[in-house]
Design brief:
The complex is a heterodimer of chains A (128) and B (204).
Chain A lengths: L8 H27 L31 H23 L6 H24 L9
Helix pairs in contact in A: 2-3
Chain B lengths: L1 H11 L7 H10 L12 H9 L22 E5 L7 H10 L5 E5 H6 L21 E3 L6 H16 L24 E2 L4 E2 L16
Parallel strand pairs in B: 1-2, 2-3
Antiparallel strand pairs in B: 4-5
Helix pairs in contact in B: 2-6, 3-6
Chain lengths: 128, 204
């Protein structure tokens, strides 16, 4: 029987083999536990946290939304640096149009910084 | 005895026989995975034991697990302060059965040089059952290897059925031991009477 006629048979066989590979040890260990080794659950053993300390508080904590401002201001400086270096390298050979465009771009970023500064975001104040 | 004699006879004839119990214990004793857990300077010796020079991997015990869920053996390596004791007990409780404890070094056995300290637990065997004690301050890696071999010997001799079967096979035996709480002056309770009884003092 040529394999070409049953090109999916091999995959099915491999799939069955893989399933058995996982299920047979699980079943054997289940049988072993039934016959010899009793299950022993407990509050500590069933605890979710596993570093020895008791879990404290709720997992549903809120993160401060103010941090998005820092992310935005970081972007201002980050993008500025990325564009400033090639700008500085090719500064001497730039046509006037490119120079004006670059200046407009930097001014836009500076405007963002000025806005943040005027809003008082640059001063670190713990809110609670 | 007769079964052993028969087994020897068969082995001489080139036929190897075994039992479920032997296979089970053989598998367990050669894959004792310790919990990755060090408390003080003994842990440095434990790390040295796991490295190439002493090579704990020869005994199948090199797989230090960072989670108690996957560990078989807790090596209490170092001084157990009273602040740390509840966490140690809780980690032990979170290990699946069968589980074993090696108390490594003078501190883990008895408090060691810090025995008089107000903040030091006078031996981890006050709260959890210890299988092998290693003396020394700190014990050399060879001593830890010896403890592993001793533990392997202990595991090899455990029976699967019968009245003398080990704790983890007895349904009624506890698998968790209560973790002590921080009291006003000391841990409450100061020891687990189910595990440890204070030695009787002799009055003069």
């Amino acid at each position: 029987m040529p394999v070409e006629d049953h090109s999916y048979l091999l995959i099915a066989l491999l799939l069955a083999g893989a399933a058995l590979f996982a299920l047979v040890p699980l079943g054997l260990s289940w049988l072993w536990a039934r016959r010899f080794s009793p299950l022993k659950p407990g509050p500590d053993k069933n605890a979710i946290y596993e570093c020895g300390l008791k879990a404290s508080g709720d997992a549903w904590v809120q993160f401060q939304s103010e941090y998005y401002l820092y992310a935005i201001i970081f972007l201002v400086f980050d993008v500025e640096t990325v564009f400033l270096l090639p700008f500085a390298v090719s500064f001497a050979g730039l046509p006037a149009g490119a120079f004006v465009a670059m200046l407009g771009f930097v001014l836009l970023l500076v405007e963002g910084l000025a806005w943040a500064w005027q809003k008082g975001v640059l001063t670190w104040k713990p809110t609670h | 005895m007769e079964a052993d004699a028969l087994k020897d006879e068969l082995r001489r004839q080139g036929i190897v026989t075994t039992t479920f119990e032997e296979l089970y214990n053989w598998g367990r004793q050669n894959s004792v995975w310790p919990l990755s857990f060090g408390l003080a300077c003994c842990a440095i010796e434990m790390i040295a034991t796991s490295m190439a020079r002493y090579d704990i991997a020869r005994f199948g015990a090199e797989v230090f697990r960072p989670s108690p869920r996957q560990a078989d053996l807790m090596i209490v390596a170092g001084t157990v302060t009273k602040k740390m004791a509840p966490q140690v007990v809780r980690l032990y409780n979170q290990m699946p059965e069968p589980k074993y404890v090696i108390a490594m070094g003078a501190c883990a056995i008895s408090g060691g040089p810090f025995k008089q300290g107000y903040n030091v637990l006078k031996g981890i065997d006050r709260y959890i059952p210890v299988d092998v004690h290693i003396p020394g301050c700190p014990p050399r890696p060879e001593a830890l290897l010896h403890a592993i071999i001793t533990l392997q010997e202990k595991i090899r001799q455990q029976s699967l059925t019968g009245a003398d079967r080990p704790r983890h096979l007895v349904a009624e035996a506890p698998s968790e031991f209560p973790a002590p709480e921080f009291g006003e002056h000391d841990l409450v309770p100061p020891s687990n009477p189910g595990v440890w009884q204070p030695p009787a003092t002799q009055s003069q």
